[in-house]
Each structure stands twice: as C-alpha cells, then as structure tokens.
Model the fold of this input.
Amino acid sequence: MAINPERYDSKLASQSEAVGQILKMLDEIKFGSVEIIIHDSKITQIERREKVRPVLQK
Done:
C-alpha cells in the first residue's frame, strides 16, 4: 500500500492544528477537563469542560 504524500501532509497539518487548539485550551483552563474524540485515527472533536465555583462571602 503506497502512501499518498499529499494526503499525509494534509493529515499532519490538520493534526498539528488540532494539537495547537488542545494546547491552547489546556493553557486557558483552571479547573476542568479537555476531552479528545477520535474516529478512524483522526481527531474529530475537542471538548472542554470547565468548573466554576462561586466565591461565597460569609
């Protein structure tokens, strides 16, 4: 099976962009989680859940 270089480069570019988005989310989040959804070895969705706890004054 031959590798199509154009498809490979395109996949690397999109994966690199997705990794950049994940790193940005990780940098911005204080409390919560980042979930990466993968289908057929490709990142198809990135979800961020952030916990916000109000400061209650006594």
